[in-house]
Design brief:
This protein has about 140 residues and is α+β, with helices and mostly antiparallel strands. It is built from two helices and eight strands; from the N terminus they run E-E-H-E-H-E-E-E-E-E. The strands form two sheets. Strands 1, 2, 6, 7 and 8 form a five-stranded antiparallel sheet that branches. The termini are far apart.
């Protein structure tokens, strides 16, 4: 199980993400990021794009922030949106793999960065976090 919910925040947008695994939490966060950015897509575009990544951090919250920052930079540079994350490795301090998505024709909203991220387990045992995207 993984899901995201968009929440309006004062100086940008935020998403609440929940998942049973940390990898699922990262994928839900990526889905939330691109829901907030609102890409302009072409229904006839069928090609996939893949963006390899490797990120390191002191803890999982910082690792997730680094992954999302990398996705924002790659998306804005290449006019791409990522719908999936394929991990070859994910720990609390390192993740490698590839972002998988499709070309887009720009974005309706600008996401310039990611605020600090705190990841916690909820009473049901799922991982959750609220992520603020800076606009």
């Amino acid at each position: 199980m993984r899901k995201f919910e968009i929440i309006d925040a004062g100086d940008g947008r935020s998403v609440r993400v929940t998942a049973t695994t940390k990898a699922g939490l990262a994928i839900a966060a990526m889905n939330g990021l691109f829901a907030v950015a609102a890409p302009r897509t072409d229904e006839e575009e069928t090609g996939l794009v893949r963006q390899p990544f490797e990120v390191h951090a002191d803890d999982f919250g910082h690792l997730l922030a680094a992954l999302l920052e990398k996705a924002v930079a790659a998306a804005m540079k290449g006019n791409e949106m990522y719908e999936d994350v394929r991990f070859s490795l994910i720990t609390d301090t390192k993740a490698t793999g590839e972002l998988v998505g499709k070309p887009v024709h720009g974005f309706r909203a600008t996401v310039r960065g990611v605020g600090p991220i705190k990841v916690e387990k909820n009473p049901e045992g799922a991982w959750e976090s609220t992520i603020v995207f800076k606009s």
